Amino acid sequence: MAIATTMRPLVSLALPEKGAARLATQLFLAIVGTLLLTVSAKTKVVLGPVDISMQTLAVFLIAAAFGLRLGVATLLLYMAEGAMGFPVFQGTPEKGLGIAYMLGSTGGYLAGFVVMAAIVGWAADRGWDRNPVKLLGVMLVAEAIMMAMGFAWLAQLIGPEKSWQFGVMPFVVGDLIKVALAASLVPAVWSLLPKRG
User: Fold this and answer.
1) What is the DSSP letter of 7?
2) Which of 95, 135, 137, 179 is most buried per CB count within 10 Å?
3) Could you tell me if 117 and 71 are in contact, meaning their C-beta atoms sit under 8 angstroms apart?
4) pLDDT tens, 121-160?
5) Phi, psi of 68 (to 5 degrees)
6) Strand partners, 44
7) Are 69 and 121 in contact (CB under 8 A)?
8) Is the dihedral of CA 21, 24, 29, 32 positive or negative?
9) pLDDT at residue 49 above 80?
10) Which residues lie closer than 8 Å to 173 by C-beta, 6 or more apart?
């Protein structure tokens, strides 16, 4: 029984075991997650030449707390909200709405968020979210993949040199700080909880 407990993400502690109550709670958490993603997208911290949003941090925390299935479902619901024209992304509504915005310069990063959530959620389902070193390693991999997807998409639009200059380099330091913060916060929460099993 102790093994099963250590293989579940944080959110499992708040979920009913089964039935309609479990589904309703998961739906509620997914909606709350999309609200957190929206607020984090609009929250900017000035760090150097660019404004850094808190969205990457929110994706990491949601994925680590929710696990693979609910984490990815939350990100997909968020993308669906954006596709329907809700102003949930960082540059909306100023730079457009809906599918047109999603196919613009940030398209690769948005898709990368879903992949990032899948990687970190998968690790959380295996108990890696209790260990800051393991979680940091997984989050660095997820971050690198997300940035690579964003770079590749942007390179198709403005070329690889400009994509690297404007779409990757200005964000490296800020994103590394967010990775370190997320990789510290989730295991810290686990350490405060009473031991089970």
Assistant:
1) T
2) 135
3) yes
4) 999 999 999 999 999 999 999 999 999 999 999 999 999 9
5) -60, -60
6) 53
7) yes
8) negative
9) no
10) 47, 48
- Structure token digits, residue 117: 């959530």
Closest CA to 41 of 100, 104, 93, 83: 93
Confidence band, pLDDT 50/70/90 cuts, at residue 3: very low
Q: Is residue 73 within 8 Å of 27, Cβ to Cβ? A: no
Residue with tokens 């609200």: 35
Q: How high does pLDDT run on average in the chain?
A: 91
Q: How far apart are CA 42 and CA 54, in angstroms?
A: 8
Q: Are 71 and 129 in contact (CB under 8 A)?
A: no
Consecutive H or E run containing 74:
helix 55-83
User: Which DSSP letter does residue 197 get?
Assistant: -
Q: Is the pLDDT of residue 5 over 60?
A: no
Residue 82: count other Cβ atoms within 10 Å of its Cβ: 23
- Alpha-carbon span 87 to 67, nearest angstrom: 26
Model confidence pLDDT, tens digit, residues 71-118: 999 999 999 999 999 999 998 999 989 999 999 999 999 999 999 999
**Could you tell me which residues are beta bridge partners of residue 53?**
44
For residues 13-29, one letter each, b for 16 or more C-beta atoms within 10 angstroms of the residue's C-beta and e for the rest, the string is: eebeeeeeeeeeebeeb
pTM: 0.90
Check residue 46 and give its pLDDT.
75
Residue spans of beta strands (DSSP E) within 48-178: 50-53
